[in-house]
Write a structure and sequence with these properties.
The complex is a heterodimer. By secondary structure, chain A is mostly helical. In chain A, about 75% of the residues lie in helices and about 0% in strands. In chain A, about 35% of the residues are buried. By secondary structure, chain B is mostly helical. Helix content of chain B is about 80%, strand content about 0%. In chain B, helix 7 packs antiparallel against helix 9. Chain B is flat and about 70 Å long. Classes of the chains: A mainly alpha, B mainly alpha.
Chain lengths: ~250, ~240
C-alpha cells in the first residue's frame, strides 16, 4: 500500500465529512420530532391515527431507502409544472434538500417504532404513583414517562443513528459529494480501490465509534439507579489526599 | 397525473413495462438470495470464530463484524466492483491476457451483499447459540456424543430455531440492500425502473411501481418467516 497516496486520499475524503454530518444531523433531528408524532399517533388509541401511522411505517420500512430517494428526487420531477405552480419546485430541485427529506422520512419510520417501544416500557406502577402524588399529565410525562422512555429507547436509537450515518452515503447517488461520493470518484480516477476503501471505511468507523461512545456516556448518565450504590462507609473514612481538593 | 397513465405504463399491455419489471423483480430476488446464502456461510464461520476459545479467531471475528457493520454498504459494493475487476485484470495479465476483465455484476453484487449480510448473521447465530441450554449440551456429552454428532443433533436444530426471527430481519436487509447493486449496472428492479423512467420520461410511475414491488417482496418475506417461526416453535411452550 502506498502511504503517500493514502495520505492524499484522506485529505480529499475528509472534505466530505461536513456534508455527511449535515445530512445525518438534519435528518436525525427533524426525523426524531416526526417520529415522536408518529409514536404518539400509534399510542393515541384513535383508530384512524394509529392506522395512518402504521401504514406510513409499513411503507417506509418495507422499501429500500434508495428507491425512496429516487422517487423524491427523480420521480417528483415528473410533476415539475405542478410543483412550480404551488411554489415548491425550489425545494425538490435541489439534491441536498431531497436527500435530507428522504432520509428524514425514512428514519422517522424506524425511530417511531423505537420510541413507541420506549414509551410502552414505562412501568404502569410508576405512572400510578405519580398520579397518586397529584402530578398533572404534563408533569407526569416530563418527570416520569419521558426520562424512563428515553433511557429504554436509547440503545436502539443509537443503532438507528449509526444506520443513518451509513445511509448518508446514498446521497452520493444523487450527485452529492460526501465521503462515499468522493471515494467513488477517486476510485474511478485512480483504480486503487483497496486504498481508497480503507481510508473511507476508517472515516466512517471513526464517526460511528464516536457515536457509540457518546450513546454509552448518555446511557450511563441516565441510569443512576442501575449503578452500584455509593459506599455507605466512605464518608467516615478520611478522603485520600488526592481527592480532598476535588 | 392520471391513474390510467400509470397502469398503462407499468401494466402488461402492448406498451406496458409489466413483464420487464417482473423479470427484474426476479433478478432482485435471485441476487438477494445468493447474497443471503453467502452471508449464511460467512456468518456461521464468523460466529464460530467469535465463540471460539482462540484469542486470534475471536479477534478476527470481532473485527469482521464490527467493520462491516460500521461502514456503508455502498462503499463495500464499490470495493468489490472496482477491486474485483482490478484483481481479475491483473490475474489475466499474469496469464498473458492483456485487456480489461470485469467481474460479472451479478457475482459482484451477490458477494458484496453476502459479505455485509454475513456480519449481521454472525451476530444472529452467536445470540442463538448462547441461548442454547447448557444442560442439553452437558447431557449430550454425558451420553457420549462426539462433537460432530452433538453439533448435528443438538446445536444446529436449536440454533436454527432461535435464529429464525433474527434471520428474518437480516434477510430484509439483504433484500433492501440489493437495490444498491443497481449503481454498478445490474439490471435488477431499481435499475429496470431507472431504464423505464429514462425512456418514457415518467420517473414517478416507475419508481412508484418499484416501491410497490419491493413492498410486496418484503411483505411476503415477513409472512413466510412468521410461518417458519411458528412451525419451528410448535414444540415450545410459551410464557403466556
Amino acid at each position: 500500500m502506498d502511504l503517500a497516496f493514502m495520505g492524499r486520499t484522506f485529505l480529499t475524503l475528509i472534505e466530505g465529512v461536513p456534508l455527511l454530518l449535515e445530512l445525518a444531523g438534519l435528518s436525525l433531528t427533524i426525523g426524531a420530532a416526526f417520529a415522536l408524532l408518529l409514536a404518539t399517533m400509534r399510542l393515541s388509541g384513535v383508530a384512524v391515527l394509529d392506522w395512518t401511522a402504521q401504514s406510513y411505517i409499513f411503507v417506509f420500512r418495507g422499501t429500500p431507502l434508495l428507491v425512496q430517494i429516487f422517487l423524491i428526487y427523480y420521480g417528483l420531477g415528473q410533476f415539475r409544472p405542478a410543483l412550480q405552480d404551488i411554489g415548491l419546485w425550489w425545494f425538490f430541485r435541489e439534491p441536498f434538500y431531497c436527500a435530507v427529506f428522504a432520509l428524514t422520512l425514512n428514519t422517522a419510520a424506524y425511530a417511531a417504532e423505537i420510541f413507541r417501544g420506549g414509551l410502552l416500557s414505562v412501568p404502569h406502577g410508576q405512572i400510578e404513583a405519580a398520579k397518586a402524588c397529584g402530578m398533572s399529565r404534563l408533569q407526569r410525562f416530563r418527570r416520569i414517562t419521558l426520562p424512563i422512555a428515553v433511557r429504554q429507547a436509547l440503545p436502539a436509537y443509537g443503532n438507528e443513528i449509526i444506520l443513518m450515518v451509513k445511509a448518508t452515503s446514498l446521497a452520493s447517488v444523487i450527485t452529492l459529494m460526501e465521503v462515499t461520493g468522493l471515494a467513488h470518484r477517486l476510485i474511478a480516477q485512480s483504480f486503487r480501490a483497496v486504498e481508497v476503501f480503507v481510508v473511507a471505511g476508517a472515516i466512517y468507523l471513526f464517526i460511528n465509534f464516536v457515536v457509540t461512545r457518546v450513546i454509552l456516556a448518555v446511557e450511563w448518565r441516565l441510569s443512576p439507579h442501575l449503578r452500584r450504590a455509593p459506599d455507605v462507609e466512605a464518608p467516615m473514612k478520611p478522603a485520600p489526599a488526592h481527592a480532598r481538593g476535588a | 397525473m392520471t391513474p390510467i397513465g400509470f397502469f398503462e405504463i407499468v401494466g402488461f399491455g402492448e406498451r406496458g413495462w409489466g413483464p420487464a419489471l417482473l423479470l427484474a423483480t426476479s433478478v432482485t430476488l435471485a441476487v438477494a438470495v445468493c447474497g443471503f446464502l453467502v452471508g449464511s456461510v460467512l456468518g456461521a464461520l464468523a460466529a464460530a470464530a467469535k465463540l471460539s476459545r482462540s484469542r486470534l479467531a475471536a479477534t478476527i471475528g470481532d473485527t469482521y463484524t464490527t467493520v462491516l457493520r460500521g461502514i456503508p454498504d455502498l462503499l463495500v459494493i464499490y470495493l468489490f466492483y472496482f477491486g474485483g475487476s482490478l484483481a481479475l485484470t491483473n490475474l489475466g495479465r499474469m496469464l498473458g491476457y492483456d485487456g480489461f476483465l470485469g467481474l460479472p455484476v451479478f457475482v459482484t453484487g451477490a458477494l458484496a451483499i453476502g459479505v455485509v449480510n454475513g456480519a449481521y448473521q454472525a451476530e444472529v447465530f452467536r445470540g442463538a447459540y448462547l441461548s442454547l441450554s447448557k444442560g442439553e449440551l452437558e447431557a449430550a456429552r454425558s451420553v457420549g456424543m462426539s462433537r460432530a454428532l452433538m453439533f448435528r443433533r443438538i446445536v444446529v436444530p436449536q440454533v436454527m430455531r432461535y435464529a429464525i426471527p433474527g434471520l428474518g430481519n437480516v434477510w430484509q436487509l439483504a433484500l433492501k440492500e440489493s437495490a444498491l447493486i443497481s449503481v454498478i449496472g445490474l439490471v435488477e428492479l431499481l435499475r429496470q425502473a431507472q431504464i423505464g423512467a429514462g425512456s418514457t420520461r415518467q420517473p414517478f410511475y416507475f419508481f412508484l411501481a418499484a416501491a410497490i414491488l419491493y413492498l410486496a417482496l418484503t411483505t411476503i418475506s415477513t409472512i413466510a418467516f412468521q410461518k417458519a417461526e411458528n412451525r419451528a416453535m410448535r414444540g415450545v411452550r410459551r410464557a403466556a
